[in-house]
């Protein structure tokens, strides 16, 4: 190799950047909305349980302004983390957030400008959504793929592994279980947790007892396809629209998690 070629190769290896891991520190929404045009939307509001009109800023526009790399991160399956003032931090698929028509609401248009939020009851107290409330025109209020956090303050992005690695199947799990894990994150995790990672609308499914240690596979498959055939007024939506093979993969995933139980702080339990 000539000296010249060696130098060229050395230079190339320096200038070709490593693939950027999506790991964006929180950005304050108050900074992002500066110099963006507000929009008006009407939504079917899950918090107030009626139609509401808001003024706010398109989420996708805020995300592109916050991070030039955001499209690449979305293509890698990264998660958008939505952090509220009290630290509550649900997340949703970043690609879905970028493609959707979400609006970060700054005021309720059915209220006077000097008192822009309608209080709502939460437990024994009354809350308002201020400072910001993420709303989704055209999305059904019970669609678990979308998040409607109120008292929202910051946006950040985490890689899929950073967010869900603690609930991934053991390394030796089958391909079906690996596929089931992805399906579970997409369809079930908005409401259920595994190893305490995920939502809490539905029960935790792995610790301390794995769901397949006390439910048979046959009943679980039937329950997932039609929860209301087991429990009247079940709060779980039906997943009868998923191909049977996907439902089986999800149950395989859940079953594989018997071998990987992690409790608080990622410690074995
Ligand atoms: C919108 C929220 C929501 C989603 C999404 C959801 N569930 Fe549920 N699930 C619940 C709730 C709430 C219960 C509690 C019992 C009930 O209401 O029937 C439940 C109960 C269950 C149970 C029975 C556990 C028990 O002992 O009560 C299983 C198993 C289950 N879900 C699996 C799944 C799987 C697998 C998926 C994804 C394909 C899923 N769920 C998606 C809300 C949800």
Quick structural overview:
The protein is α+β, with helices and mostly antiparallel strands and 269 residues long.
Overview of the structural elements:
It is a single chain. The protein has two domains: 18-158, no CATH class; 166-266, Sandwich (Immunoglobulin-like), CATH 2.60.40. Helices cover 29% and strands 21% of the residues. It contains nine helices and twelve strands. It has helices at 3-15, 29-32, 59-66, 70-75, 94-99, 160-164, 175-187, 217-225, 244-256, and strands at 23-28, 39-45, 50-58, 79-84, 91-93, 103-108, 120-122, 125-127, 133-135, 152-158, 193-194, 197-198. β7 (120-122) and β8 form a beta hairpin. It is globular, with a radius of gyration of 22 Å. The protein starts with a helix and ends in a 13-residue tail after the last helix. The protein binds heme C. Heme C (HEC) binds at residues 144, 187-188, 190-192, 201-203, 211, 215, 220, 223-224, 227, 231, 234-237, 239, 250.
Strand order of the largest sheet: 1-10-4-5
* Class inferred from helices and paired strands: alpha+beta
Measured by DSSP, the beta-strand proportion falls in 15-25%
Average pLDDT number: 90
Number of helices: 9
Provide the domain count: 2
Distance between the termini: 56 Å
Task: Give a quick set of tags describing it.
Immunoglobulin-like, four-stranded antiparallel β-sheet, alpha+beta, 29% helix, 9 helices, binds heme C, 2 domains, globular, 269 residues
Chart the SSEs and their pairings:
Blueprint: H1 3-15, E1 23-28, H2 29-32, E2 39-45, E3 50-58, H3 59-66, H4 70-75, E4 79-84, E5 91-93, H5 94-99, E6 103-108, E7 120-122, E8 125-127, E9 133-135, E10 152-158, H6 160-164, H7 175-187, E11 193-194, E12 197-198, H8 217-225, H9 244-256
Antiparallel strand pairs: 1-10, 2-3, 3-6, 4-5, 4-10, 6-9, 7-8, 11-12
Helix pairs in contact: 7-9
The structure holds heme C (HEC).
